[in-house]
Amino acid sequence: MNFEFVLDALFGKREILHAMECSICGFDEIYYIDAMTNKQIGRACKECNFVQKFDF
C-alpha cells in the first residue's frame, strides 16, 4: 500500500508541523497537525514505514 494512502486513512487532511531525525532509521520523521484544528495528530517516517497517531 502506498505510504501517502496510509497517512490519508489515519490522519485525513493534515499539515506538516516539523521534521526531525528519525530515531529508528535516521531519515526525516515528520510531525503532523490537523488542518482544521491545528492540533498535533501524529508522526510518520516514510523510510522505515513508521506511523503513530496521537490520541489525546
Provide a descriptive summary of the structure in words.
The protein is an alpha+beta fold and 56 residues long. It has one domain (3-53). It is built from 1 helix and 4 strands, in the order αββββ. The chain starts with a helix and ends with a strand. The relative contact order is 0.26. The mean pLDDT is 93.
Task: Offer a quick outline of the entry.
With 56 residues, the chain is of the alpha+beta class.
Strand content: 35-45%
Question: What is the N-to-C succession of helices and strands?
Answer: HEEEE
The secondary structure category is alpha+beta
User: What overall form do the CA principal axes indicate?
Assistant: globular
Total beta-strand segments? 4
Distance between the termini: 27 Å
Tell me roughly what share of residues is in helical segments. Answer: 10-25%
Tally of domains: 1
What can be said about the biggest beta sheet? 4 strands, antiparallel
Continuous helix count: 1
Spans of 5+ residues with little confidence (pLDDT < 50)? none
GO molecular function, one term: acyltransferase activity
Keywords: Acyltransferase, Transferase
Protein name: Acyltransferase
List keywords for this structure.
globular; 4 strands; 1 helix; alpha+beta; single chain
